[in-house]
Design brief:
There is one protein chain. The chain has 175 residues and is mainly alpha-helical. The chain has helices spanning 2-11, 17-36, 40-54, 60-79, 83-97, 103-122, 126-140, 145-150, 161-169. Helix 1 runs antiparallel to helix 2 (17-36), helix 2 packs parallel to helix 4 and helix 4 packs antiparallel against helix 5. The longest helix has 20 residues, at 17-36.
């Protein structure tokens, strides 16, 4: 974290694109590190800093990091048991990059949709979960049965008949 802070102090105001890209990467990595050291509020602040600095950029490298910051922000809010804030972060990503054709952005869009499906499942909302998983499948171009089977967030709806039918229709064998 000190190394990221040093980089930000030295180069945070630079207008050189190569240095700006390193600043954006440092903010992403700082947020991830803060989250992993049980400092979620500070992680959110790092992602917010990145969004404030680069959120309006039309440069692909910065757009990818903005998308990553929004996914990480959503994930962090989810870990803080703040699902509405997590959904807002994912919705911001979907609004901004949902129609993008860039593979790196589509990967982040798919992650946001999967995470929204997890939140819906935790809320026992199988219809919303199925809708998000359908969008996730369509973005990825395939359905990943293993990802759903391995994620305990889906446990609250695993016995739901509609969820079971959905899994079977997508080639998964429900438990």
């Amino acid at each position: 974290i000190a190394a990221y802070d040093d980089l930000l102090a030295r180069f945070g105001d630079s207008d050189q694109p190569a240095l700006q890209e390193q600043v954006a990467k440092a903010l992403i990595n700082k947020g991830v590190t803060l989250r992993s050291t049980d400092r979620p509020d500070d992680a959110i602040a790092a992602y917010d800093d990145l969004l404030a600095r680069f959120g309006d950029s039309d440069q692909p490298a910065f757009q990818e990091m903005v998308a990553m910051a929004l996914v990480n922000r959503g994930f962090t809010f989810g870990a803080m048991n703040r699902p509405d804030d997590a959904i807002a972060a994912y919705d911001a990503l979907l609004a901004r990059f949902g129609d993008s054709k860039q593979p790196a952005l589509q990967k982040q869009v798919a992650t946001a949709l999967f995470n929204k499906a997890c939140i819906a499942a935790l809320r026992h909302d199988s219809a919303a979960c199925i809708a998000f998983l359908t969008q996730w499948r369509d973005r990825k171009g395939k359905f990943d049965c293993d990802a759903i089977a391995a994620d305990s967030d889906f446990d609250p709806i695993r016995a739901d008949p509609d969820f079971i039918a959905f899994l079977r229709a997508n080639g998964c064998e429900p438990p």
